[in-house]
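Here is one chain, start to finish.
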Amino acid sequence: FYDADLNELKSVSSSSAASSLKRVSGVVVVAIDGKATISLAKALKENNIKYLAAKNFTEANVEGIELISF
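Its structure:
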């Protein structure tokens, strides 16, 4: 999880990322080392996070979430 200045706020496993979002404030970007899923993208939208970076995406298109590939 990263803030607006791309400072790391917290590092969690990709499997627990969606459930961990509510416990960390100031998150602007979520970066996943692996596949980003639709459930994670929906969790970002629910938490007003607009950017999701990942190596791969599995149908993670959710309106309002910008997908960034790295």
